[in-house]
Amino acid sequence: MLASVPFGVLAFDHDGRLIGNNPEAERLLGPLRRPDGELPLRCCDLLGCRRPSSVLARRCLLDLVADAQDPIPEFRVDLARDGDPSALWITVTQLQDAGLLVTARPGERGDRRRRTEPHWITTPRLTVGVLGRTRLASAETSIAGQWLQQRAGQLFKYLLVHRARPVPIDELAEVFWPAGATAALRNVRYFVHVVRNSLEPERQRRRPSSFIVAESGGYRLDTTRIEIDADRFESLVAAGRSAAARGEAGASASLTRAADLYRGELLADEPYADWVLAERERLRGLAAEALRTLARLHLADGQLDNAAAYLMRLAEMEPFDVDVQRLLLSLAIRRGRHSEAKRRYATLRARMRRHFGQDLDFTLADLATPRL
């Protein structure tokens, strides 16, 4: 019956593996079996799940459908190939066994006409990474360029740091043009305009910005449309610490995800900006606490190598924290890594003498059991 249907039909199982299709789907997408014939293709192979700058850049189609509260409207997927068609308009239906039924019609790459606006694009539409060097990603287009390292980018980063409140224009003028007087206010408005256009290069003239809202004589980021890794990191740390305090098994999973998100100091590409320092130090403290708790949990489970890995990260973050360094040395001895312990001890001792004129108040012989 499906052979006569004038559009492509693909069925995927609950793991996203292709389990069936009609001839039109093969005409639209090309061969639908792997050359080796061993494993079936997955939805990610065919539709570009998690491919940068695609409509599915942030997630797999399977996850999207599972999390959807409302029916998913038809949307366009650009194909990672040359040829005809260059894109597909697809609709998705979840099957009773948690698989997917996808229908596909030919489209044209770059065609911005939509029957309806996909809700997972509109809210939120921007993903921002601030842990480590600043990173921006949009489901609709790639966001990159030198502007992030210039004045417009610095202004945007300031709004990110202070995203919990509207930032007055006068405050922005004082931070970035302290001696500018009237010209400073014009500069603020101009560079906000630059940021808006950089974030939404295809925004129509006079159309309100999706991300920067004018409010109370200043500007505020619309965080309902923006995902920021620091917010997710902080939420995971809080959940992990709370679970650890209650002795729940999920503590390690939450804290591990938080540690993975912490790719570096807040806005590492702005190392000398004094307006970052307080928030940077606060998040660093949360990361240190997450790593310390992970080390303690893994040590309690007898997973010494995992505990050591987290303590090493913590020791790199806190090179002058003698208690942390002592814990790492103790664990190295417990793991039988005496040469490593000796090298680390000598390095720590020299570091403390050089910077503080102080010697260590313990020897390697004193270290037997880590104190976490």
From TrEMBL:
InterPro entries per the UniProt record, alphabetical: AfsR-DnrI-RedD_regulator (IPR051677), BTAD (IPR005158), OmpR/PhoB-type_DNA-bd (IPR001867), PAS (IPR000014), Sig_transdc_resp-reg_C-effctor (IPR016032), TPR-like_helical_dom_sf (IPR011990), TPR_rpt (IPR019734), WH-like_DNA-bd_sf (IPR036388)
Query: Is DNA-binding one of the keywords?
Result: yes
Which Gene3D superfamilies does the UniProt record give? Tetratricopeptide repeat domain, Winged helix-like DNA-binding domain superfamily/Winged helix DNA-binding domain
Chain ranges of the PAS domain: 1-30
Q: Name one GO molecular function term.
A: DNA binding
Q: Which UniProt keywords apply?
A: DNA-binding, TPR repeat
Protein name stated in the entry: PAS domain-containing protein
A biological process from GO:
regulation of DNA-templated transcription
Q: Give the top-rank taxon of the lineage listed in the UniProt record for this protein.
A: Bacteria
Q: Which family does it belong to?
A: Belongs to the AfsR/DnrI/RedD regulatory family.
**Source organism lineage?**
Bacteria, Bacillati, Actinomycetota, Thermoleophilia, Solirubrobacterales
Coiled coil segments of this chain: none
Q: Which Pfam families does the record cross-reference, listed alphabetically? A: BTAD (PF03704)
Q: Where would I find the TPR repeats?
A: 288-321
Q: Which PANTHER family match?
A: TRANSCRIPTIONAL REGULATOR REDD-RELATED
- Source organism per UniProt: Solirubrobacter ginsenosidimutans
Keyword DNA-binding found: yes
